[in-house]
């Protein structure tokens, strides 16, 4: 069973579920937006992408963010996905994180984009 993230109820009042592809996207979202130290039993879990909101938007920060995102994905989700590319772009005051990955179970290529 793949529980929907963030936790929700379905129309019957039961725990909402999602298909496996959407569940993996939810797991990526959860990993990237969790700060290390935020989880009690997994203090190393997370990427800390939210901390980038308060950093200057320049090439050094983009390179650091790319390294953190790729490292976290490889550490925590390598049993489900193969990370093909993490692309960080800084445009004016916005930061865009694009993750291209392949699902290991069916070799399907996916891309997910986050913007600040």
Automatic annotation (TrEMBL):
Q: What is the lineage of its organism?
A: Bacteria, Pseudomonadati, Bacteroidota, Flavobacteriia, Flavobacteriales
Q: Which InterPro entries match?
A: IraD/Gp25-like (IPR007048)
Tell me which species this is from.
Answer: Gelidibacter salicanalis
Gene3D superfamilies found in the cross-reference section: 3.10.450.40
Q: Where is the IraD/Gp25-like domain?
A: 21-106
Instruction: Tell me the protein's name.
Output: GPW/gp25 family protein
